[in-house]
Amino acid sequence: MKVVLVDGFNMAFRAYYGMPELTREDGFPTGAVHGWVRTLWWIEDNVKPDNLLVFFDLGGAQRQLAIREDYKANRGEAPEDLEKQIPVIKEWTRAAGYVGIEEHGVEADDLIAAYSVKYAEEGHEVLILSADKDLAQLVTDKVHQLVPPPTANPKLGWRELDPEGVEKKFGVRANQIADYLALIGDTSDNIPGLKGVGPKTAAKWLNQYRTLEEIIAHCGELNPKRFQGLVYAEADNIRRNLEMTKLDRSLSIDIEAHAEPDPERAVSLLKEMEMGRSAEALVKRLETD
Question: How does DSSP assign 56-106, residue by residue?
Answer without folding.
Answer: ---S--HHHHHH-TTTTTT--PPPHHHHHHHHHHHHHHHHTTS-EE-BTTB
